[in-house]
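Notes on consecutive records. When two proteins share a document, each keeps its own sequence and its own token line. Never mix them. Below: protein one.
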Amino acid sequence: MASEIKVDTISEKTSANGVTIDGVSLKDSKIATANSVDSDAYVDGSIDAVHLSANSVDSDAYVDGSIDTVHIDALQVTGAKLNTEVISAQTELAAEPADTDEFMVSDAGVLKRIDYSLIKGGGGFTKVHSITASSSADITFDSTYMTATYKTYLVIADGIKAADDGPELQMYLSVDDGSNYLGSISRVHLSCEDDDAGITAAGNDEGAGACIIGKSSQGNDSGESGGGTIWIYGSQDANVWINVNCQYVSWGSGMELTWENSSHGARSTTALNNIKLQMSAGNISSGTFTLYGAN
């Protein structure tokens, strides 16, 4: 048989003890028995900042993903909170940044962004492409690399070895990406050998089919090689003809050292979009040709 007590007030008998009901002690309008209130008994929304003691919530109690940008105040993430690999762990950009790529800088203590175009600097050269010869019939920089991006181009030839003994290094110019190569090349050529006291002017021409970079017969014995620079001017300017200036140093088949300086011109105002380098006979055994664009 159930029992029921109806009263308006239940007061403690002894002021120090409070009142106990079914094992739960009530004292001074509060529940005095530890661990006696289950979370299911909380009123929704009743646990707010006012009712939480300082340092009373451990991170293990957070719901995964609950700490988002909404719950982090501005300026609360400091440098000490960043992992040391915050940059190195990201995907690598393996090419020069685009002009609109952005960097973060501190402007007198204020974080700001800046486009690459404002910090990349002017002048100098940009490496366009490099090709290493390996028993190659020719080395060609086509319209993928010869574009209107640059008006002036520079080719650096390094460690060029010929397969045959005694060939010339030549360069051909094309305005239709190699379908045809320009003829009637004007040429002025100066050279000097280590066993010659004077400078020789030879091979001057107005109707050559190629730019003769190394006119002297280059050897192919061990150590005999050539190298130099090839400047190409006005190749993308519709108002001027194409001009080429070269310096080339090589070892001849008789172990003589030869210096050569040559200038070449093509009477064409069509944009140059292909250059081909090859020996007058045989392959290019080895060596590297690197194309640069002048900024």
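Protein two starts on the next line and is unrelated to protein one.
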Amino acid sequence: MFRSGDFPGKLFVFEGPDGVGKTSLSKYAHAKLLDLHDNGGWFPGATRILWMRQPTTRWREKIKEADPKNWLQVLYMFMRDRERQWEEELRPALEDRCIVVMDRYFLSSLVYQGLCFSAMFRGELEHADKLRYQRNVYDIIRGHSDFVVHPYMTFVVDEDDLIIHERLQASRGDTIDVFDENSIQTRVREIYRYLLSWDIDDCLEVGLPTMTTIHGRGRSIESIFEDDLRGMLIRALGYTKLASPI
């Protein structure tokens, strides 16, 4: 796995369960950074500010049509998609000193395909299953090691269960997949929280990114960005306000 410092560009990833608002938040953060960069501001060395997502358009429909319980097939699709995106889009962007804002990355496979992989669809979330899940995390990371990079920062977005359920119902209507079930969504959140509980040394040992939790608490995307994200991103990027041209 490539390290964040191997490239002059920076990758910022937004993760979290479906319905927490991570896609909207990642797009809003990209737009605000782009606005700062283009209107009187400067991020030292940055050439462009890009937004990317996973899965990409090329694989999105194929992955949607696949049976999510067939975790091996779905994981293979995600891995091929990430490999192609790495070679054609992400690596060239980071080598070109771009700031990349990403909607989901390989951590999602550790949660969603890892959830299936560790038999949690049978309702198991006991200590022994967590240990089995931890071993599966190692396997998935090793499978991605040649074409993923450690993000500079990873934000895990969380939200209240009721809000998630209402958003999923509003956005998907009758089109509900297995991951939208309340019991599965609860387990997805538990896995994200489990990974967040790892200390930094354990994360570094196996190749997990260090993570920061963003709690939505029903706030608007604008409020979340201004209250929680703006300061962290500006400090991380060394933003400098340039003097207005005369």
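For the record: The CA atoms of residues 9 and 97 lie 4 Å apart.
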